[in-house]
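[AMINO ACID CHAIN]
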Amino acid sequence: MPVPEVTVPGGSEGGLRKVPPERLLRADPGVPEVVKGSLGHCPGMRCRLRAPVYVDLTGDGKPELVLAFDDDSGRTWMWVYTASGGSVRRVLDYAGPSQVTAATVGRDLVVDESGEGRKATVRYRWNGRVLAPVPVG
């Protein structure tokens, strides 16, 4: 489902890089209010929104937008958005402990969680509709 009231500029200079991350998160009904309420400090030193990452995870030659937010309760929220036509659609919604890091391996998004005496790795791969978890190995 497209994020309401967010459009993606077209042309060679358009794409998700032209969509302000804070505006996208505020418009997305799937983003928790605790995150939306903290975006008033962004950009700035008190902003808990990590720098946006643009990487092609779907294989269509256009970068997706990866956003992560560290809240006050020790959680990290992460979303991945893709552009299709003039609209934006969320293809991954993730919440985990604050010690989350993510990296790309090929077109896969690999999320590492650590904290509370445990470590877990989840690998996400495009299935034609969303980024879905796949076995790590």
In short: Residues 2-98 form one domain. The chain has a mean pLDDT of 87.
